[in-house]
Amino acid sequence: MLRRPVAAAFVTPALLLVAVFLAFPAVWTLWLGLTDYRLTGLQAARPRLVGLHNYAEALGDALFRNSLLVTLVFVLGSAVVGQMGLGFALAWKLRDVPRPLRSAVEVLVILAWIIPESVVAFLWIAFLDGESGTLNALLPGQVEWLLDYPLLAIIIFNIWRGTAFSMLLFGAALQGVPPSHLETARLAGASGWQQLRDVVLPTIRGHVLTNLLLVSLWTFNYFTPYLITRGGPSHQTEVLPVYVFRTAISAGEFGAGAAISTIMLLINLLIALAYLRLLRERR
Amino acid sequence: MRTGARFPRHLLALLVVLLVAGACTPGGSDSSGSEGQVVLKLSANAVKGGKNAHEAEWLEDWAIPAFEKQMADQGKKVDVQFVGSGADDEDFKTKLALDLKVGGGPDVISVDGPWVGEFAQAGYLKPLAEVAGSEVDSWDGWQQMPKPVIGIMEFDGKRYGVPQGTDGRVLFYNKALFTKAGLGASWQPKSWDEILRTARQLKAKLPGVTPLQINAGTSMGEATTAQGFLPLLAAAGKGIYDEQAGTWQAGAAVRDVLGFYQSVYREGLGDPRLQQRADGRDRSFAQFADGKIAVLAEGDYFWRSVITPTQGLAPMKDRDQAVGYALIPAKQPGAGVNGQDFVSLSGGGGWVINPNSKHAKEAWALIAFLASRPAVEELVKREPRLTSRNDVNQSALEDPLLTFIAEKVLPITTTRPGVAIYPQVSQAIQEATEQVATGKADSEKAAKDYAAKLGKVVGADKVSSG
Questions:
Q1: C-alpha B374: how far from its chain's center?
Q2: B224-248 burial, b if ≥16 CB within 10 A, otherwise e?
């Protein structure tokens, strides 16, 4: 009889924390998005309700649509294809590799994952610099990587940066594939590709989907490209988090920034819903 | 079971107590010291060994002890605590705005001039006399300050702070390169055509040297607006903001300025790629110091902090001999703002009192001390710079460029509008110049896009095409 209150009491602190630090800011952001609230100036003292004006402005802004497109390419290129593809390839290949070599590769990949963001950004600027960069020292010719191929540069950067997670997750998942299944497939004459397609992938489908969700959400909300390119040149690498930063912090438009954040939140939800749907289809 | 039910209730009660206690902890400036001692917090975007190190050293090692002693001699116990910072100016501004908004923040703050209007409109700052009383207006320091310099810290005709210093923009040029190109070591162009003509000659004679770098584009940020566009706009005869009419400029003068950018960057007189790099400004400093850029439009900050012979971002050992400076000429003689032949743009900052301060009188005393002649002289001894005080500028400034700016530039200079919308206008300007510099649009189209963007930012009725 007393179980319910006890349970409630135990849950309450957690719920309170969630309410204070998660639910309230979310609702607050929604509310801010409907105002012309600013960091300074008259609107800071007396913000007015402007309805959906901020949303209309954002959707009508060519730079916002540009940013959306850049983000899409960035997520698809660096997270979905890059990190997951390379992560899986590494995990798959490393299974049959002698232990010392495997550990060495793993350490290198994980190292790229755990170095602090600001340090990594500096390393990549030094690496890609057109005048005195390491890459240009290795290659013939003078290419301004960050000016001529900025989006490609941050995509490759993010692949380098984030592959470790996919590799670890897939590595663990592949250990769960029963060797007997692979053995049977091999005896039945399945090629390497067929084994992969018909035995391995169906077994680790859940892991693939979870990984897909995590890396695409992380990449979608990833701000570090700003440290390398500042969103430039000419907005070519201005992913949505950078766009929000520029609007809300650089220009001081909290209201508009909140509206764009809400749009980002909705896109995040869409990605998560699509994932849940895919996961359910499995059963 | 009973105890099981009661235990969490205790826990809950404890939690509630903790939360309430947490919420009640006083935030902001807690400035009650022991036994009638007044604690003043002083903040500037300066920190020892980092950003504006000289200023931080001056405050901590000299000004604060001297002020405390002065107050002690008058029988007042004042403890001044310095809160340093080494952040980007924009971040420092955001932090201050948030501090002031919630009723906290240091008692005395050093702010950049253009923030005054924004902060005043938001209610974060109040006029000095309102905060600290009538002794503000009777302070003798005001008489030493030129009107436009006092204007840096004014808004709506009221004084919000005491200016600390100012600056000016000029064209820096490399005398050695000019001599090599057969142009002689002294240069003072009188029109835009003359600038372009010189740049073309430099280009023809000195392959591998960028003749003329005028900041453009978004990655240069505010430097584009302050070092490039706005001085040029003044040279074309217009200010960006008409305070009387409340309108923003988007007319022929803007097209002229963008046309000038087009000549510079389409003819290869300037390096458009430099303008797109995230660290383009620092690189332009380094290239100038290396003799790779012949003419660079910059503020005196470049002279006193970047190419200083002994330290700085890009030291030039022979700076005083190798670097010349010229006034920025109007488009044609007499075509600048107010019919001027030469123009410039000045900024600067100063001291303000936090309206939330519980010790406004002491805060004012501190500001009056920091802006007094002996204090400012002590600062200039540590780092030569243009101060707000005529007496100090006349007696203590030995630097040739700073003297040049004090005498030739300050009388003809302009300032940026201190209203909250300005950063967005500045962003629209940066985008327009970027379009032109990168060749994405010609000056006509960029001017049209700019006018449209401006209409969105400030409202179509506030755009002046005159």
A1: 24
A2: bbbbbbbbbbbbbbbbbbeeeeebb
Dihedral sign for Cα B178, B184, B188, B192, please: negative
At B7, the pLDDT band (50, 70, 90 cuts) reads very low
Q: pLDDT tens-digit profile of B128-159? A: 999 998 889 999 999 999 887 888 899 888 99
Which residue has 């490399």 as its token pair? B174
**Cβ contacts of A11 within 8 Å, gap of 6 or more:** none
A-chain CB neighbours of B423 within 8 Å are 250-252
Whether chain A has a CB inside 8 Å of the CB on B20: the answer is no
Residue type, B177: L
Q: Which of residues 384-443 of B touch A (CB under 8 A)?
A: 419-421, 423-424, 427, 434, 438, 440
C-alpha closest to that of B433 among B215, B285, B179: B215
pLDDT band, very low/low/confident/very high, at A232 (cuts 50, 70, 90)? confident
Element (H, E) at B99: helix B89-101
Assigned token pair, A5: 């209150």
Mutate which: B115, B271, B276, vs A, most A CBs within 10 A:
B276
Q: Report the chain A residue with the minimal C-alpha distance to residue B430.
A: A234
The strand pair at B463-464 and B247-249 is best described as: parallel
Residue B17, both tokens:
């107590």
Tell me the Ramachandran region of residue B208: left when phi exceeds 0, alpha when psi lies from -120 to 50, beta otherwise.
Answer: left
Q: What single string gives the DSSP state of each residue in A198-228?
A: IIIHHHTHHHHHHHHHHHHHHHHT--THHHH
The torsion angle over the Cα atoms of residues A245, B154, B414 and B410, rounded to 10 degrees, is -120
Quick one: tokens of B125? 């700052």
pLDDT at B23: 47
pLDDT at A2 > cutoff 70: no
ipTM: 0.71
A47 touches chain B (CB under 8 A): no
Q: Answer whether A176's CB lies under 8 Å from A131's CB.
A: no
* Any A CB within 8 A of B1 CB: yes
How far apart CA B326 and CA B338 sit, in angstroms, is: 20
With 80 as the cut, is the pLDDT of residue B61 above it?
Answer: yes
What DSSP designation does B327 have? P
| Residue B364 identity | W
Q: What is the value of pTM for the model shown?
A: 0.78
The token pair that represents A55 in the structure block: 């949303």
Q: Is B17 at the interface with chain A, CB within 8 A?
A: no
For the residues of B202-228, what is the DSSP string, one character each?
A: HHHH-TT-EEEE---SSTTTHHIIIII
* Residue B313 clears pLDDT 80, i.e. is over it: no
- Gap between the Cα atoms of B107 and B39, Å rounded: 9
How far apart CA B200 and CA B211 sit, in angstroms, is 8
Higher pLDDT, B334 or A193: B334
Q: What is the distance between the alpha carbons of residues B104 and B463, in angstroms, rounded to a whole number?
A: 37
Burial of A59 (0-12, 13-18, 19+ CB in 10 A): middle
Instruction: Tell me the average pLDDT of chain B.
Output: 87
Nearest to A149 by CA among A246, A77, A215: A77
CB A264 within 8 Å of CB A59: no
Q: Which is more confident, B33 or B248?
A: B248
Do A10 and B8 count as a contact with CB atoms less than 8 A apart? yes
**How far is Cα B178 from Cα A104, in angstroms, rounded to an integer?**
57
8 A C-beta contact, residue B122 and residue A45? yes
As a whole number, mean pLDDT of residues B400-412 equals 89
Give SS3 for B341. coil
Tokens (6 digits) for B340: 């001027």
In single-letter form, the type of residue at position A146 comes to L
**By the 8 A CB rule, do A203 and A181 touch?**
yes
Nearest residue of B to residue A225 by CA position? Answer: B278
Q: Which is it for strands B293-299 and B169-174: parallel, antiparallel or unpaired?
A: antiparallel
